[in-house]
Write a structure and sequence with these properties.
Layout (H helix, E strand, L loop, with lengths): L4 H7 L18 H9 L26 E3 L2 E7 L3 E9 L10 E9 L10 E6 L8 E5 L2 E4 L9 E8 L4 E8 L4 E8 L9 E8 L10 E13 L4 E2 L6 E8 L8 E5 L9 E5 L4 E4 L2 E7 L4 E9 L12 E7 L8 E7 L7 E7 L2 E6 L9 E8 L4 E8 L4 E8 L9 E7 L12 E13 L4 E2 L6 E8 L8 E5 L9 E5 L3
Parallel strand pairs: 1-14, 17-30
Antiparallel strand pairs: 2-11, 2-14, 3-8, 3-12, 4-5, 4-11, 5-6, 6-7, 8-9, 9-10, 12-13, 12-16, 14-15, 15-16, 18-27, 18-30, 19-24, 19-28, 20-21, 20-27, 21-22, 22-23, 24-25, 25-26, 28-29, 28-32, 30-31, 31-32
Length: 488
């Protein structure tokens, strides 16, 4: 009688019942995931073959790790022969270009020029044929199991320590299951990592509020020596967090929730941007210990809907954090267009240089504006009316006195005490094709790669005040958004 690897794990002497194992899918290139898993700092580096080392039991998390592609939990410090979890298949939230798959894995560290053995199961959101995939040493494929949105799916990977790895996917809702056996690669592979998480590769636009992508439950691991546990241990465990630049200084894109149910359960969430509050500005700001030399955007000049004293303008600027006076370089575009409606200004302590462009856009014109600091003591301000084909660049001296532009902001400004609240939310400004560059030449959008904050304008510049103006969710990889006057 054939006994599945999952059943064998449940029947092994001294083993507590693991319960139901859940699944993962989607054959995106495992290179991204492998880089994330093997990028974790190892305390057992250099070990090979033989029995797994004796380690003190631990049930606490180590410091989090950061990367550019996935989020979840990683276990290390033991040699793992088994990993399993149960998932509820969700609808697709992250685009296919960014993947959005859940995964479980065991993998080996490889030192030097080699291809380490590893084993993955990927589960794509949205369900359907081909959405549950296995990926082993030099071999990959799709399970026949075809879950639908809402189905409960258990997935597991088991290494028999005799050269074979078993991949199992079981749809608990449809009562279908399949096990695939593959060669493990190498005579005695050392699977010293286990990973459960979600792939969100590339630039992923943030949601308006934190959104759960996947829910992992009843997750279990087993070592080569038969020690059973949950994600939390007994072994070293850490969170893996995706940020906009793959480091702790970037904005968190996806991250796991805290572990619950003894370390068996957690969710992976797509995170909203951190919020900052002001009295008169709404948009997005980039910062995080970077220095910025360039910011640009394209906007459609709107008709004036507010009294002139409301100061309804679009603004882009490079500026500084810290005590005043702070250096800045900015372009402002007045709603309604016309002569003098596009201006620039630069301030360096007691000195202010300002002027207006000869470019004279009309309502409906598309206007491109940019601020560039040449890192040689000069700021350049450029305004181009794409509709009329007119352009102008202004230059001013920039004496930053040894400091740097540490913020880049794009948004809309308004005078809260004068603005007329609309009967319904109304878009004032439409920003697109927004880009930012650092002193070191790193190029990106409003979203990164760096830390970015959403800026909301409220009555009292705090979360407790009524929202006057706020930006829409970023789109097109972080290039596009609108500044909306909110009804309240």
């Amino acid at each position: 009688m054939f006994i599945s690897p999952l059943a064998k794990e449940r029947l092994r002497p001294g083993r507590e019942r693991l319960g139901e194992r859940r699944s993962a899918h989607r054959g995106i290139s495992r290179v991204v995931c492998a880089a994330a898993v093997t990028g974790i700092a190892l305390t057992t580096a250099g070990l090979a073959g033989g029995a797994a080392p004796a380690m003190a039991a631990t049930h606490s998390l180590g410091p989090p790790s950061y990367g550019p592609a996935d989020a979840g939990y990683a276990a290390q410090g033991r040699w793992f022969r088994f990993v399993s979890t149960t998932l509820t298949v969700p609808p697709r939230v992250v685009s296919k270009d960014n993947d959005g798959s859940a995964l479980i894995a065991i993998s080996a560290t490889c030192h030097g020029p080699c291809a380490p053995p590893d084993a993955y199961i990927f589960v794509a959101p949205g369900g359907g044929p081909g959405t549950v995939q296995y990926d082993g040493f030099l071999t990959a494929g799709s399970f026949r199991v075809s879950p639908q949105v809402g189905d409960r799916l258990t997935v597991s990977i088991y290494y028999d320590q005799h050269g074979h790895t078993y991949f199992t996917a079981a749809d608990l809702t449809q009562h279908t299951t399949q096990t695939v056996r593959l060669k493990s690669g190498g005579i005695s592979p050392v699977f010293n990592h286990a990973h459960l998480g979600v792939v969100a590769a590339g630039t992923v636009p943030p949601p308006a509020a934190d959104t759960r992508l996947w829910d992992f439950t009843d997750s279990h691991l087993t070592t080569y020596t038969g020690v059973h546990g949950t994600v939390l241990g007994p072994w070293q465990t850490s969170q893996w967090i995706k940020t906009t630049d793959g480091t702790a200084t970037g904005t968190v894109v996806t991250s796991p929730s805290d572990l619950s149910n003894g370390g068996q359960d957690f969710g992976v969430w797509l995170r909203a941007l951190p919020l900052a509050y002001t009295d008169g500005l709404a948009g997005y700001g980039a910062s995080s210990g970077r220095s910025f030399r360039f910011v640009s955007t394209t906007l459609t000049v709107p008709a004036a809907t507010q009294p002139a004293s409301a100061g309804d303008v679009a603004v882009i600027w490079l500026g500084q954090n810290g005590a005043t006076p702070r250096a800045y370089a900015a372009i402002r575009v007045l709603a309604g267009g016309g002569a003098g409606s596009v201006s620039y200004g630069a301030s360096y302590g007691p000195t202010t240089n300002a002027g207006t462009f000869a470019v004279t856009p009309k309502p409906g014109d598309r206007l491109s504006v940019s601020v560039y600091y040449d890192q040689q003591g000069h700021d350049y301000f450029t305004a181009t009316d794409i509709t009329s084909g007119t352009t102008q660049t202004a230059q001013v001296n920039a004496d930053l006195a040894g400091t740097a532009y540490t913020t880049a902001v794009i948004g809309g400004e308004i005078n809260n005490s004068v603005v007329t609240p609309p009967p319904a939310d109304t878009q004032l400004w439409d920003f697109s094709g927004s880009h930012v560059t650092t002193y070191s030449g790193d190029k990106g959008t409003v979203l990164g790669p760096w830390a970015t904050s959403e800026i909301a304008d409220t009555i009292n510049a705090s979360a407790s005040g009524a929202v006057v103006m706020s930006p829409s969710v970023l789109s097109n990889g972080g290039q596009n958004f609108g500044a909306w006057l909110r009804h309240h």
